[in-house]
């Protein structure tokens, strides 16, 4: 029996082979919390484990010595786009983001590959791998190995390792009252991916989505060197509200987000008004909506937009007010022209208010 599609056979759209795409594939935050509720706090058992699973942080961090700690993470998902090379690039960028979000610098990656070998031509699969390799090359690291399986749905991602000084680790739980929130990338990847799946996303929208999702969050390593940067995370599958809430809960503070100040990818609001968005928005809201207040004057679409799952989204930084100019300068020096202040943190219950 032939082990690959016949020559000339129609190649299926990558997104048609999966039930979800990108970080919208994530298990809903409420379900994930329940699954991890009985996990033993490992940092009490392993003193060199600086960051474990206790605070829903972006990666594990293990102290090697007084000068070095290892950042370890993994991330993979099903296709968010149909172009295999772009799929590989987006997935790799997203995986490396967790290293940058901890303040680390990547040193190597391993590929995680699950592909329907009898459905997709082998050259298509090779393009996915090449996309990931090219992103890693741009980050200055090798794809040094990995693991592959024959799966029903296409899956690709990385296990990534990085290094960071133990005193420069930036957790998502170390924000302080009075901190300002800065977001590095525009929002709306989930909405645009839904439009793509419905085949109503134009070339300009596609280019904007891929451009945002393939920007490596390199500023994270430089931001970690600023004493005024207290906490960092990246905005991914739980949406802006979900990841802001993680910061608020970790520090037991109230986060206020100014809706009018948020950066958006082009066309996102219009698509939502037309009913184009992912099912993950609803799952996200069901998981954490009780800890969020939406101001009465916000548009009807605000809830969907604020819970939109981001794939390879921007860094969310909590910093002292006097460090804002330095934070924005670091972002913009690396090409993140949409970086901007979006809110603040203050004393109060652990929740998010969107104003």
Quick summary:
The protein is α+β, with helices and mostly antiparallel strands.
Question: What does the main sheet amount to?
Answer: 7 strands, mixed
Q: Biggest sheet: strands side by side, in what order? A: 8-11-7-12-9-13-10
Overall pLDDT score: 92
Strand content: 15-25%
Distance between the termini: 60 Å
**H/I helix tally:** 11
Radius of gyration from CA coordinates: 20 Å
* Multimeric status of the protein: single chain
| Overall morphology | globular
- DSSP E strands, number: 13
Which spans have pLDDT < 50 for at least 5 consecutive residues? 1-8
Q: What are the secondary-structure elements, in order, as H or E?
A: HEEEHEHEEEHHHEHEHHEHEHEE
Share of residues in helices: 25-40%
SSE class: alpha+beta
Overall description:
This protein has 355 residues and is an alpha+beta fold. 32% of the residues lie in helices and 22% in strands. The strands form 2 sheets. A 7-stranded mixed beta sheet has the order 8-11-7-12-9-13-10, with helices on both faces. A 6-stranded mixed beta sheet has the order 1-2-3-6-4-5, covered by helices on one side. A hairpin with a 5-residue loop joins β2 (60-63) and β3 (69-77). α2 packs parallel to α3 and α4 packs across α5. The longest helix is centred in the N-terminal third of the chain and has 18 residues, at 84-101.
